[in-house]
Amino acid sequence: MMAGLEPVCVAVAYSGGRDSTALLHATAVAARDWPGVTVVALHVHHGLSAQADDWLQHAEAVCQAWVEEGLPLRLLCRRVGLRLSAGDSVEAVARAARHAALQEMAQEAGADLLLLAHHRQDQAETLLLQALRGGGLAGLAGIPRDVIREGVRWVRPWLDHARSAIEAYVAAYGLTYIDDDSNADPRYARNLLRLSVWPALVSAFPDAEVNLAASARRLADALPVVDAWRLQALPPLLAQPVDAGADDVATPMTSALDARRWAVQSGALRRETLRHWYRQVSGQVMPATWVERLAEEAPRMLSGQGAAQWSALKLSLYRGVLSWGGDVAPEVEAGQREEVQLSLRAAGGWPVAAWGGCLVVREVSSGGVPRSLLADVVLRQRVGGEQFQMGAGRPPRSLKKQFQALGVPAWQRGGPLVFAGEQLIYVPGLGIDARVQAPEGTPQWSIEWLPDAISQ
């Protein structure tokens, strides 16, 4: 290895099928020519097929043969069990379990890059399936080609390549692979589309795959633009604390929307800001039918009594404020929650199982904390006596007084306090302490706590 270069580990999701076999082989061959680069194949054993054990044995045999040929490669396997409830999609549950297992194995192997073998037809099929299900912009954008999850970068390098190119690679190198018998089962939506619809579609429209994948790519390009707009559009619509005076610069209540300001927007803007706000405060996606209903129903109520509740969404409208709140739960006694240490080394979602939620870290231009401050943080239970400074030049006050000033309900005060050493830096419902905010223009991150949330 060349002096001064750190060893690099690249992970490849490897099912043993044709596409992942080709990607794993191409990656290992490339790594052989780069000193210090190793490849780890990640195999997930679902147990859904009677042949699952045979597939694992095949993966072990292939990797061992390639190692003997001099390829810098090793194999990791994770067995997962699927818990299905009535109405669950086997495809969706299996995908979630597979993604979780791949993430865990990549981190275990020390790989910060994970490659997946999806190709152009996969992308085109995904857009069609999402459209048939009434998907929104994120769904129609298809399979993400490059995304960071908990410090691991998930990349699909072949998303613009045709399946035929992969088949040609496999044939050229004489690679052996397995055929998953479930791919011929029309009970699964993607298989039904691929077996019954896709041949007729391509026959009628020969450029369907190329054009559908191109549409998904353009929609994906729009996602960061929409995200940037959301960051600007939502803050002016957040409700202010009820006791904020005219000269008092108060932090908005992120769990409450000023319904009167929101209601005067056009229908499209009302729906989009409602979707974004609800996901921010609840960590969940509001069903499309509810978005349509609330965008029309809530504004009409403002001219009347102005009070309503939608328990299915944990939403309430009162005095011109649309609020979200979780179920009222018993008080958690001090010391009942364990301390959790984290190293927030990358933007994204950081699930904290012990606290039943997710800490979301985002890169911002102002109002955040220096990145170095998040290298070693501790999540702790509120014990009393903690002081929080709401803004520059304002005196630190007890959490109880700050919660009261912002109107934060009691059941929303149970999230973890985030400390760097003994310095309190973040409080759910209040935000980032002004004493640790980074100067504008310097690299910084924001923090947000989402109860019972899963990062996307």
Explain how this protein is built.
- This protein is an alpha+beta fold.
- It has three domains: 8-221, Rossmann fold (3-Layer(aba) Sandwich), CATH 3.40.50; 236-324, Up-down Bundle (Chorismate Mutase Domain, subunit A), CATH 1.20.59; 340-451, no CATH class.
- The protein contains twelve helices and 22 strands.
- The protein has a six-stranded mixed beta sheet with strand order 3-2-1-4-6-5, with helices on both faces. The chain has a five-stranded antiparallel beta sheet with strand order 7-8-11-10-9.
- Helix 1 (18-32) crosses helix 6 (163-173) and helix 4 (120-132) packs across helix 8.
- The protein is globular.
- It starts with 7 loop residues before the first strand and ends in a 5-residue tail after the last strand.
In summary, what is this structure?
The chain folds into three domains: 8-221, Rossmann fold (3-Layer(aba) Sandwich), CATH 3.40.50; 236-324, Chorismate Mutase Domain, subunit A (Up-down Bundle), CATH 1.20.59; 340-451, no CATH class. The chain is 36% helix and 21% strand.
Query: Ranges with pLDDT <50 over ≥5 residues?
Result: 242-252, 326-335
How many structural domains does the protein architecture include? Answer: 3
**Fraction of residues in helix:** 25-40%
Number of helices: 12
Strand tally is: 22
Principal-axes shape call: globular
- Gyration radius, in Å: 25 Å
